[in-house]
Amino acid sequence: RLRKHIADKAKLPILIFPEGTCINNTSVMMFKKGSFEVGGTIHPVAIKYDPRFGDAFWNTAKYSVMTYGFNVLTSWAIVCNVWYLPPMVKELEEEDAAHFANRVKAVIAARGGRSVPWDGALKRKKVKESLKEEQQKKYCQIV
Q1: 137 vs 126, 128, 141, CA distance in Å?
Q2: CA torsion sign, 81 to 59 to 76 to 51?
Q3: 90 FRET partner, CA 20 to 30 A, in 7, 51, 122, 143?
Q4: For residues 54 and 72, is the Cβ–Cβ distance under 8 A?
Q5: Strand runs (DSSP E) across the chain, as ranges?
Q6: Contact indicator for 57, 128 with CB cutoff of 8 Å
Q7: For the whole model, what pTM was predicted?
């Protein structure tokens, strides 16, 4: 459906948040690659919240939905900086969706002054055992 939509030039662009969620303004989470598999032009936007007047980040481990809602509703303002970045397309036909997503992610992170060397979701959950085992096997082969 996405391919069909972007092929029709009469239709408006689709707004997609490839992170699926936000993190505490320190890093960019791993992008879901699905929106980068359909081709087309990506118009990256970097958004960074300014927590001086009110913090938009919801730490689900610390605050309930009621407490978070109360904090947002009683904050003086929710302020954010928004940067519209140059459009991006796949560099080569061979570039896969994951590489394209990571390239877009790096541009967004650089503009927003955030780090990207890891997936920000790791703050919320543990690494899968299968990924640990894969790295252990690679290390054993080196040793």
Answers
A1: 19, 15, 6
A2: negative
A3: 122
A4: yes
A5: 45-50, 79-84
A6: no
A7: 0.70
Alpha-carbon distance of 25 to 112, in angstroms, equals: 9
Residue 44 · residue 18 · CB < 8 Å: no
- What whole-number distance in Å separates Cα of residue 24 and Cα of residue 48? 10
Q: For residues 80 and 112, give the distance between their C-alpha atoms in angstroms, rounded to a whole number.
A: 11
Nearest Cα neighbor of 124 from 27, 48, 55, 16 is 27
At 11, the amino acid letter reads K
User: Which tens digit of pLDDT belongs to each residue from 21-41?
Assistant: 666 667 777 788 888 888 788
Phi, psi of 60, deg, nearest 5: -65, -20
Q: Is the separation of the CB atoms in 24 and 59 below 8 Å?
A: yes
Averaged confidence pLDDT in the chain: 82
Q: How far apart are CA 62 and CA 44, in angstroms?
A: 31
pLDDT tens string 58-94: 777 788 999 988 988 988 888 888 999 999 988 877 8
How many CA atoms lie less than 13 Å away from 138 in the CB half-sphere? Answer: 6
Rounded Cα distance, 40 and 6, in Å: 7
